[in-house]
Amino acid sequence: MEHTVYIGFGSNMGDLKKNCQWAMDSLSRSGVCMVEKISRLYDTEPVDYEAQDRFMNGAARIRTSLAPRDLLALLKSLEREAGRSSAGPRFGPRVLDMDILFFGDLVMESGDLEIPHPRLHKRRFVLAPLCDIAPELQHPVLKKTVSSLLDKLDDGGKDVMVLEDVLAITA
Question: Is 3-162 CATH 3.60.10.10?
């Protein structure tokens, strides 16, 4: 069974655009995911651990036959392959970060996996790119669209700037 999944991705170490493009290419090459749509890229302020460089963030819509936990395992393996270390602060600098935001209309909470992502509605760096590709997507718990969540977000004005950069979708 094919699932429509939205993922968020970002980087703040090394060649940010190259890291993000590598992530999308790697998903496409995995043989179990098809990248259908990618947002514009955003230059964003760090959140939760602010003593670090700015991030490049984006979002993508993918199709996959993987179960949620198997997709999470794939994303984490790609993060490690890109050079992400588990050492350091939880929200600290990273070569690559990839998160499942929505998995169809699934709602689940199980150990290290919560869908929808538990903090997506509080993060401009997630909502802005997600609005590029799915503004009318409805949060299955909050019953609000992504664009509505972004419009009503009160995050103290976290700085999120659209970059002209876009990533290619590869086969």
Answer: no
